[in-house]
Amino acid sequence: MSTDRSTPGFVAIEQVRYRYGANDPAIVDGVDWAIPRGEIHCLLGRSGCGKTTLLKLAAGLLGPSEGAIRISGEALHGPSLHAGFVFQAPTLLDWLSALDNVLLPVSLRRRVTAADRDAARDLLARIGLADFATRRPAELSGGQQSRVALARALIGNPDLLLLDEPFAALDALTREELQDDLLRLCALNGTTALFVTHDIGEAVYLADKVAVMAAGRLAHRRRIELPRPRHRDIRYAPSFIAACRDLRDAMDGEAGTAASQRPAA
Ligand SMILES: Nc1ncnc2c1ncn2[C@@H]1O[C@H](COP(=O)(O)OP(=O)(O)OP(=O)(O)O)[C@@H](O)[C@H]1O
């Protein structure tokens, strides 16, 4: 898609509700959310509050029970062709090299060209894996596997990147490096991203805007005004710490509210 990347509401989630079964409670319960082109928005919330379900709705992997999801103004009726995905586990194919894993989305659609191979090598180089292109996943560390998964999601230069706690299993320092890789690659292509996490610091570091989800609703939203490009030193800035504290308070407040709304045992 070649429309203006500054158009507001590139991703528009409009009054969306979702129930897994017709008589089940709404897991996503009346969510409104607009993500302008080129922005990174983070969805923060405790385990089980509905984050992955909302991400699957945004991906078109689930269809809303009520409401609509639009990408660039068009209602989504199935898996989005314009989105790249990064899941909690890297989910690489063991028998393919790192390079061929990155090229997988292309090879599933058509014959891989020399230009595709160059693009994949370029992506691997940008995330520090230039010398690992021929290695199989088992010969890579967890952090390197996550980098390959990120490169695979970006190979088609998607307009939208959807990430579901992609770095949760990594140690803290590797996670910070991956966050920097992600910010660099998104900035390079103006990629719009929706990133699910339960880590407050990760959300503040990455996001233009953070939404706190509790019991299926977006209970609190906060724009993150920290300058870009962001550097890891910013994590010690008073404004960073204040944003983390505000979001933590929102999560604690919503946890109390959600608990008080649960039926008594
Ligand atoms: N396929 C399904 N069928 C029925 N219920 C489901 C299904 N998938 C998820 N749920 C329920 O929906 C609720 C929200 O799940 P979801 O995975 O969206 O939460 P989450 O916030 O992403 O949690 P986590 O941080 O632990 O991944 C949970 O109560 C879960 O049990």
From TrEMBL:
Keywords: ATP-binding, Nucleotide-binding, Transport. It comes from the Bacteria. Gene3D superfamilies: P-loop containing nucleotide triphosphate hydrolases (3.40.50.300). GO terms for molecular function: ATP binding; ATP hydrolysis activity. Residues 11-240 form the ABC transporter domain. PROSITE patterns: ABC_TRANSPORTER_1 (PS00211), ABC_TRANSPORTER_2 (PS50893). Coiled coil: none annotated. Belongs to the ABC transporter superfamily. This is NitT/TauT family transport system ATP-binding protein. It comes from Bosea thiooxidans.
